[in-house]
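Case 358 in the screening queue. Each case pairs one protein sequence with one candidate compound; here the compound is S-adenosylmethionine. For every case the pipeline is the same: read the inputs, emit a complex structure as tokens, and attach any notable structural observations.

Predict complex for case 358.
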Amino acid sequence: MEQNAKKVTSPSKGLLQSEDLYQHILETSVYPREPDFLKELRHVTASHPSRSSPTSATKSLSSLTPNSSPPPPPATPRSSTSSTSTKRVRQEKSERERGRQNTQLLKKEILAQRRAQSERDERSQRERGDEILLTQRREKKIRIFYFVAQEKPVAEGGTPIHTTICSQEAMKKIVEKLPHNILQSEDLYQYILETSVYPRESEFLKELRHVTASHPKAFYSTAPDVGQLMAMLLKLVNAKRTIELGVYTGYSLLLTALTIPEDDKIIAIDVNRETFEIGLPIIKKAGIADKIDFIESEALPVLDQLLQNHENKGSFDFAFVDADKVNYWNYHERLMNLLKVGGLVVYDNTPKRISCDS
Ligand SMILES: C[S@@+](CC[C@H](N)C(=O)[O-])C[C@H]1O[C@@H](n2cnc3c(N)ncnc32)[C@H](O)[C@@H]1O
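Case 358 output:
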């Protein structure tokens, strides 16, 4: 932790929406990885006038103000007693004062707009219960990242999952209502799928997505954009040994198997082998079936069994949890012991509160 480090106030906290969480991430993840030279340069820069001086901030703002007059040229020291010169000096002074007032007004307006936007963003994020939660095991601390912030992060005592068991029909309606992502626009989401996601999706994943589409629970399947985020995370932690809870027809499983290196393995657990078998022919066709150890079971007893073998502790690089939400806390405790230090757990869709009649 950076002792006495100046609190960094970010111009935009981005998705975190919490200054404390941002500071926590800086102190536990960012500063420890920052090379000494960058650290030194950051400290040296922190005291530079162009960063901290309100005068220079005013200057740069005023140069952006369309109405503000350019700074007047320095007064020519002709005759200090000349009335024309005094008049000009007064005029210049009042122009400068007007410019300063314009700048102040503009600054206030920008601040008010930013505040209103951030309040709107926060409100809309709070209203949604959909988020992806990433947890990384560290030496002593657990790092928690929210892609979409909750009202109160787990790190501050919040509870990530409240689930009510719903009928399949009710659940389907809820899922249909959930926003696809932070974009808040179906058209933009489709545009991104078509221009960025589908062109990068492997032909096997595409086939599996099409085969799954006609299944009554097709909405269970991991969305292709989420899949590509997962692939990035798998590569980022250089995942070799992974575990997946909740397989369904196998979209996330196939994606993981296609992403991890040749000889590496995935333990995949699901209570339902039937749905896994829908995707199995495509998994075989993709040539990665050998990487998968599918276990038909409730996930919890399998995790307990794995933990009984000391060698499994701290041996997994990555876990994807996409099974029954009521057990997420139970999975979390066990996965933290199975993961390597630096390993990553991705929880898909951890709705804060689901009401069957919402
Ligand atoms: C949302 S789907 C998984 C989707 C999958 N990741 C994909 O990409 O298609 C949830 C799966 O969890 C399984 N499941 C539910 N409860 C479970 C439990 N207690 N243990 C293991 N699997 C469970 C269900 O059978 C279902 O296939």
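Case 358 observations:
- The first strand starts at residue 133 and ends at 137.
- The radius of gyration is 28 Å.
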